[in-house]
User: Which sequence fits this backbone?
């Protein structure tokens, strides 16, 4: 079956996720700059999560650009990814409101970890369907960056109980690692 509906549905879900996250930002209680101070952790959590959702949306778009068709297994793997992404508004709000308490910081990292695992599963279901010599297989290769990201998320989740600020630094570092454009698919697929 064609891939158009999967892409459209995924784009819609991701747009809703971002909308929910921004709706969690509340208007300050006062009318001076000091009123913004309590919102700083919530806003920074939003910025980091917005980056992550944007990174997943961008990579999802590129990945589906490299495939021609989908199967039922691809649909379920895609829903699995969207499930973990859909938890981002909740984990974002919790970590921002908690001012880096251990459990919210750890669960934020575990959500990032599960998003990475779900993306890995989706990629491998697509590769299995299209074959080891397909464009998607060649473009993703060994996916070192994806594997190291999952490790960073787990290490960050563990640090949440020792030094939560280290966790956030690791999560931020990983996001910036993904902001560097990954041109593997663009090089292989010319429009």
Assistant:
């Amino acid at each position: 079956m064609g891939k158009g509906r999967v892409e459209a549905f995924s784009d819609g879900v991701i747009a809703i996720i971002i909308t929910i996250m921004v709706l969690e930002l509340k208007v300050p209680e006062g009318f001076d700059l000091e009123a913004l101070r309590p919102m700083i952790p919530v806003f920074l959590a939003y910025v980091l999560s917005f980056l992550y959702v944007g990174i997943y949306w961008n990579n999802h778009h590129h990945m589906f650009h490299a495939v021609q068709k989908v199967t039922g297994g691809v649909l379920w793997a895609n829903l699995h990814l969207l499930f973990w992404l859909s938890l981002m508004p909740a984990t974002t709000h919790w970590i921002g409101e908690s001012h880096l308490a251990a459990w919210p910081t750890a669960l934020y990292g575990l959500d990032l970890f599960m998003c990475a695992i779900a993306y890995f599963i989706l990629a491998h279901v697509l590769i299995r369907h299209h074959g080891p010599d397909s464009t998607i297989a060649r473009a993703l290769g060994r996916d070192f960056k994806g594997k190291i990201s999952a490790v960073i998320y787990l290490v960050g989740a563990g640090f949440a109980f020792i030094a939560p600020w280290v966790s956030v630094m690791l999560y931020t570092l990983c996001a910036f690692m993904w902001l560097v454009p990954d041109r593997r698919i663009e090089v292989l697929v010319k429009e």
